[in-house]
Amino acid sequence: MPASVLYSGKDFPGRSVLVRGSVYETIYRLEEAYWGLRTLTKTEARKTFAWLRSRIAAGTEDILRRTEYDRLATGGYRDKKTGKYVRVTYLKSLTGEPGGKHPFMLLCSVLRMAELAPDLARTLKDHFMVNEPGPKGRRPHMIEAGMYCCQVCTPQYERALRLAAPGLYRRQEAKFIANLKAWRERGGGTRWYRAPFYLTVLALHDIASKAAREELQCVAARVSPRLPAKWSGDDRASRAKAKAAEILLSYRR
User: Fold this and answer.
1) Domain boundaries in the chain?
2) DSSP of the chain, one letter per residue?
């Protein structure tokens, strides 16, 4: 079963955000709800977070125990040095572009509604801080670099960092924005070189700082006002890209 089958969501009909057959599909639907592409009540949110909390796998980088459906759809690889089998934690983003590391997506969804699931929010935040930034994390150098491993993963990481550790985010935002400007210059002013365009738009809009808004204004001024019409399909990626395009155009002066 290819991962594209999982991403399509067609194996799970219905409007419910909670999909017990797939952790990943549930995370996608939480993201869709945040961007207004799916309905989520507080009652269903609590139920969804309780189920996700039951699937926490402490001490693992993946953080959540995948369902059998998820395992078959995403697989993994064998580390040549250690010989250990490493589960895949990178999926498509909501926009269908790369950069969808699912622990980051889930962290953002839960922290926005932390009052509904304080234990889960605390667990995911602690996991993020231990595995990623800061002096106690495994990758403290990222704070000084203002990016994750590459352009593809950086927007999702910065979005998660802004929610999980606002102070650390502010400390490195100038470098992050400088990186974006450099990528924008290489992209001809209408995109960020090698970064997922629509995911970057959503991430910057979610970060919502003055510098993030200014970066969106720079790109919005140079893209076509007909950009949303390009994504008129009813598939998941088209809906998310159309939403991102609408958001981007709202920054035109």
Assistant:
1) 1-124, 132-253
2) --HHHHHH-TTS-SS-S--TT-HHHHHHHHHHHHTTSS---HHHHHHHHHHHHTTB-TT-SS-BPPPHHHHHHH-EEE-TTT--EEE--EE--TTSSS-EEHHHHHHHHHHHTGGG-HHHHHHHHHHHHHHSSSTTSS-THHHHHTSSSSTTTHHHHHHHHHHH-HHHHHHHHHHHHHHHHHHHHHTTTSS-TTS-HHHHHHHHHHH--HHHHHHHHHHHTTS-TTGGGG----SHHHHHHHHHHHHHHTT--
